[in-house]
Each structure stands twice: as C-alpha cells, then as structure tokens.
UniProtKB/TrEMBL annotation:
Record-linked InterPro entries: ABC_transp_permease
UniProt key word Transmembrane helix: yes
Protein name, entry field: Xylose transport system permease protein XylH
Membrane topology label: Multi-pass membrane protein
Organism: Enterocloster lavalensis
NCBIfam families: GguB
Described purpose of this protein according to its UniProt entry: Part of the binding-protein-dependent transport system for D-xylose. Probably responsible for the translocation of the substrate across the membrane.
Subcellular location: Cell membrane
Length: 388
C-alpha cells in the first residue's frame, strides 16, 4: 500500500488532470444529452484542437527551460499568409510550399533562439517582440485581405481521413484494426516497463492494480477508435499528432538531449557546471518551437481553407494554458508530453462543450482562465506539501 501511495504521490498532478478530463467529459455528456461523445463530434474535437496539441508539445519544452514563447500565434498566422501567397497568388505546388513554410518556421525559431540564448535577452521580451514583428508582417503582406481557397491536397493533412483499406460497410474496419494493434502495443510496452522497474527495484503497483490499469487503457483505446470508425475513420491530422507525441516522448525521456533540457530547467547554473551546453540547448528548444509553429500554421490554415490576417490570435495562450494544466511548471524543470496533451484535451473539451451549451465567447475565456488558475494553484499546493 505504501508503494502505491508513493507512485500516486509522485504523479498526482497528471493523475488529477486525467480525472479532471473524465469528469469534464461526463459533465458535458450528461448535460448535453449525449451530444459531446457522438462520433462526429469526437472527430471534430480532434480536428478543431489539432493546432493547440501541436503547439503545446513545442511550448512544453520552452516551459521546461523556465521560459515561454509568445510569438507562436503570430508565426502561425505568418506561415498561413506565406502558404496562401505562394499557392493561391503564385501557383506554387503543395509540396514546395510546405517545405518553404517549414524552413521559414525553423529560421524564425532560430531567430528567437539566437536573441534568447546568445544575446541573453529574456525570452518573454524576445518572443513578445517576435509576436509584434510577425503579426505586423502578416498584416502587411496580406494587406488586410483573406486569401483562399487552398488546393484539396493542402487540406488533406488537416481535414482529410485515412481511407478504409479493408472495405468496411458503414463502419471503418481499418480504424478498428489500428485500435486493436495499438492496444496490444500498449499492453506489451507497459509490461516491459514494469519489468524494467522491478529489475532496478523501483516501486511498482500490485498485480491487481496494474491489471486494472491495463484493462482501462485497452478499453479506452478501443472505444476511441470504435467511435472514429463510426464516422469517417482516422483523421490524417491524428496520425501527425500521434507521430509527434511518440517522437517527443522518446526525445524527452530516452535521449541525452531531453535530459539536458530538464537539467537546464531544474538548475541552469548546475547544468552548465556539469558540462551541459546550455546556450545550445536553449537555442535548439526555440528553433524546434518555430518548426512546430510552422506545422501548426499549415494545419490550421488547411483546416480553415483560407489565410486571414488575424489567424493565430491568442494561440500562444492556449498552448501555455494546455501545458500548465497538464502539469508543466512555470518555474521550469517539470512537465511531460502526455501531460501537455491531456491539458490540450481539457481545453478542447471545455471549448466544445461550452459552445454546444451556447455559452458566449466572453464567458468561455473567463472560465478557461479560472481553470488555468486552479491548475497552477494546485501545482503550488502540491509542491508546498512535498517540501514539508
């Protein structure tokens, strides 16, 4: 029992946010007479919040270093403007346009990283300047006009679906197969992780608790893909987000580069004295953020099927809120990719549920602000209890 308490105590924030997500989903599901979890709405939740999930992965690394990036919303808008000008106004192909947009995102991230890591301008100021610069550039190059529509091939990544190769009638069999395969992978990976922890004498939950956790995860995975199968199947952007989650989870937990990011956020001076190239770490984090902002810009623009001067407004706040709600600490050194995704889902469900209830945008912003405040207050409280 003591081992279980220790495990839960070490992960209390993440467990709490998972419970909070379930409670919020159940609340809106009951309140809206089952509308929230209808297959079409579940798919819409993924499509509508894809850009937040992409941005939150990059913002997580910034927060782990104890910093933020306020320019990402403007970068999303600028990338949309560039893609619209190249494809619609100048007739460029989809692939060359995407490549150019990704390179521009990398360069913007490197620009921010240079000022922050090497000139030592505080990240808040440097990225605030970037927010103003790229918002101004977006409005200047678009001249206040909306550019669109985009080619169908450009929209596939953000609003397309993976075809049903198995030829299901009325239900997407390919989506069901993916759910089964993922649940099998989850079971084997969790068993392997448990054995590794036991080999190093780490605390692990008892067999019944572990079995219940496995059963719950398998049930959730298969239910989720069953819901997708009832509509149009697996959205293309879901594959993109899944790949980003896998890659960045691996980088942050299994690589030296990931450990260096956490070391920097925990204590930058100690990390530097230990041989960590702290300037290089900070530069890489912001370059990566620029790349993910470009991806989010492509996804959002394709979903909207138009580039608008105001695209991306407030996106940086959504990404920061998602990370903080999901367990990232504003002081740095703490946070997980899975936590950021959970935080993003909480924000997405709140947005969708309140919209279905007819809550005005003004009240939605206020409620999301209170949720963020509560999450951070909980973080402060748990840290103060841990120190005692």
């Amino acid at each position: 029992m003591e081992k279980i308490k220790k495990i839960v105590g070490n992960n209390i924030r993440e467990y709490t946010m998972v419970v909070a997500l379930v409670v919020i989903v159940l609340f809106f599901q009951i309140t809206m007479d089952g509308v929230l979890l209808k297959p079409m709405n579940v798919t819409n939740l993924i499509l509508q919040n894809s850009y937040v999930l992409v941005l939150s992965i990059g913002m997580l690394l910034c927060l782990i270093t104890g910093n933020v990036d306020l320019s990402v919303g403007s970068v999303v808008g600028f990338i949309g403007a560039v893609s619209g000008i190249l494809m619609v106004n100048h007739g460029w192909g989809v692939v060359p346009t995407i490549i150019v947009c990704l390179v521009i995102g990398l360069l913007i991230g490197a620009w921010n990283g240079f000022w922050i890591a090497y000139v030592r301008i505080p990240a808040f100021i440097a990225t605030l300047a970037g927010m103003l610069v790229f918002r101004g550039l977006t409005m200047a190059v678009m001249k206040g006009q909306t550019i669109g529509p985009f080619p169908k091939a450009y929209q596939v990544m953000s609003s397309g679906f993976i075809p049903d190769f198995l030829g299901g009638d009325g239900i997407n069999l390919f989506a069901l197969l993916v759910g089964v395969l993922l649940s099998v992978y989850a079971v084997f990976s969790m068993i392997r992780s448990r054995r590794k922890k036991q080999a190093f004498h780490f605390a692990v939950p008892s067999i019944p608790v572990f079995a219940a956790k496995l059963a719950g995860i398998v049930l959730i995975i298969n239910l989720f893909f069953f819901w997708l199968a009832l509509y149009n199947g697996i959205p293309s952007v879901f594959i993109l987000i899944g790949l980003l989650i896998l890659v960045y989870s691996f980088v942050t937990t299994k690589t030296i580069a990931g450990r260096h990011v956490y070391a920097y956020g925990g204590n930058a001076k100690a990390a530097r004295l230990s041989g960590v190239k702290t300037q290089r770490v900070l530069f890489a984090v912001y370059t990566n953020m620029g790349l993910l902002a470009a991806i989010a810009g492509i996804v959002f623009t394709g979903r909207l099927n138009a580039a608008t001067p105001k695209a991306g407004d407030g996106f940086e706040m959504d990404a920061i809120a998602a990370c903080c709600i999901g367990g990232a600490s504003a002081s740095g050194g703490v946070g997980t990719v899975s936590g950021a995704i959970i935080g993003g889902l909480i924000m997405g469900v709140l947005n969708n549920g309140m919209s279905l209830m007819g809550v005005s945008t003004d009240w939605q912003q206020s409620i999301k602000g209170l949720v963020l405040l509560a999450a951070v207050a909980f973080d402060v409280y748990t840290k103060s209890k841990a120190k005692k």
